[in-house]
Amino acid sequence: MACSHEYYKLMHEYLDENMPLTEAKKFEAHMQECPACEQHLKELKKTVAIVQSASHFEAPEGLTREVMNQLPKQNQSQKWQNWLRRHPFLVTAAAFFLVFLLSLSAGFDGEEEIMVKGDGHFIVDESRKVVIIPEDSTIQGDLLIRNGNVEVNGEIEGDITVIHGEHLQASTARIAGDIEEVNNTMEWIWYEIKEFSREVLPFSSNGEEE
Amino acid sequence: MDAVVKRIVREVKRGNQEAFAELVELYKDKVYHIAYRMLGNAHEAQDVSQEAFLRAYTNIHSYDENRKFSTWIFRIATNLAIDRLRKKKPDFHLEDKVGGTENLDYYSQFASEEALPEEQVVKLEMQEWIQQEIMQLPPKYRSAVILKYLEDLSLKEISEILNLPVPTVKTRIHRGREALRKKLGDV
Ligand SMILES: [Zn+2]
Transmembrane ranges (chain A) (predicted)? Predict the structure, then answer.
């Protein structure tokens, strides 16, 4: 009790819903009188539903790492170039110094954490959200503080950037570069555009950039 | 999403290798899923997924930013999977390969709790059966069906991924689901 090949072809168009309305109506009328077509369509719909119920698999763990490990190794100068591109305004000083990244949770009510980037000795007072550069300390290169204030008693050989915070300087402070405070959204966006990639990126990759 | 992807791609093109990890993260599940459904084997699916990303990386400069990245990476992955199927015995999909180790492999896709409740077992068996039937399809129908019904892509996207005209894609989907109907439709 099969129907004609023509009708089965039409049925797929009908199922895809890209049939002109008049044709669709004609086909529906045919189905009313043709149990074979009706059954066939029912089976097709069921098949689609079953296939669509197939579960989705996730990639095995570690796939990203595997891929990254297999990428062609970049030589030192390529890495250096990338780094320069990402940090055009940090170029002069930072590359020759070890840079420490210190990230501390402020601890209270989900406030944003203080982040400090700089090379040298400093103290972080979490409760007051202040980064203190002691009098006898020298920060080689630039200093970046995010979500906190900075109190400078010692020496900064580069620029200071404070994002969401303010700076205070004691009479003993010696700051060689510029001081920039970024406290409103527009300034912050501009800062981000200049910096471009996330501030921690080059320093978080196992010290490869040294 | 597209803007984010664009930004990452530009970074990679500039030589920022680390940024590529973000692309892998974004697309690994879908790529793996397509590969798995094409090949029916977790190990090979992983191989093909990794290879696809490696190729994407080395050919990133030929990627046209005006097109969707997903289309591009899916195309690489699908081609690799089809190549791999070709290298196997040509009548692979008609043969007794279904069953045995393939089953185990399928179960291993799921976190293996010690004893599965009855309901879970039935569900797993159902899932396994679907995959077996997909594997019975000739690869050219299989790819079209997977992209259409498992990835829910438009005919236009599928035609770009498979590099075929839309009417051809349609025909393949029709034939694929007709073949599946014979197995799945009369339960
Ligand atoms: Zn009929």
Answer: 89-108
